[in-house]
Amino acid sequence: MVSDQTIDLEIYRHEVKRREHIRKWRESARVEQIPPEQDWYIRGGRGSGKTWTGSHTLAEWVQRYPGRTWAVVAPTYADARDKCIEGVSGLIAALGTTKAEIEAGRSRLVRSWNRSLHDLRLRDGGTVWADGADDGAPTIQGENLAGFWADEAGLWKLTMWKMAWEESLEFALRVDSARYVVTGTPKRGHPLVKRLMDDKSVAKTVMRTTDNAENLSPERLQKLLDLYGGTTIGRQE
Question: Average per-residue pLDDT in the chain?
Fold first, then answer.
């Protein structure tokens, strides 16, 4: 029989590990990568660290508010799965684990990741749903979200972004303290990007590729600067 004292000790140990995990990622983050206490839109060039920031922001929320439901939506489900969940800078890595650990049942935070059902199950009872904006993110509809991470908003289909954003995400975001983080390379003329930029309640952050130089190949970065410095695409990045 498990005593109340043993349960309390396990809760304490879990809380210590949670705080240590959050502290470590914040200490390694640049100032502009620390999340504000409000909805947040991050515009960043490729290689600027925006994906890493989005995944770690969601990972922090997941750990801070156990047992809740969350979502990750990218241009397609394949993008959400391969980049935002399983990628090098994705959510699984941000939660301090790997696919191999999860499959072996050794992950401290994640109980399971089902690529077919689009859901990542946490040991505290929480769930993270993944979906694509290209079909309106229907998996999210009907959920009570505590928060979500939307990636590459400027690449969401012009014919489907309103369904994904308004019908699936915004109406599902209804739990106390709920908020979102949006990441993406700036795309001029996209209506969702314009909406985010016009919304005064949303914090805006700009990240440049060169800001993340210490984590990039010096040779590749210099080649990009030589090729695209001063050009329109260079300014975008």
Answer: 85
**Which regions of 23-122 does DSSP assign to beta strands (E)?**
40-44, 69-74, 110-114, 119-122
Question: In the block, which residue shows the tokens 């975001």?
Answer: 173
Model confidence, pTM: 0.82
User: 206: alpha, beta or left, given left = phi > 0 and alpha = psi -120 to 50?
Assistant: beta
Q: What pLDDT digit, counting tens, does each position of 115-131 carry?
A: 999 999 999 999 999 99
CA distance 73 to 141: 12
The closest of 75, 76, 83, 20 to 54, measured between CA atoms, is 83
Residue 151 is inside which H or E element, if any? Answer: strand 145-151
Instruction: Round to whole Å and give the CA distance between 32 and 50.
Output: 10
Are 133 and 75 contacting, i.e. CB atoms less than 8 angstroms apart? yes
Helix/strand/coil percentages in the chain, nearest 5? 45, 20, 35
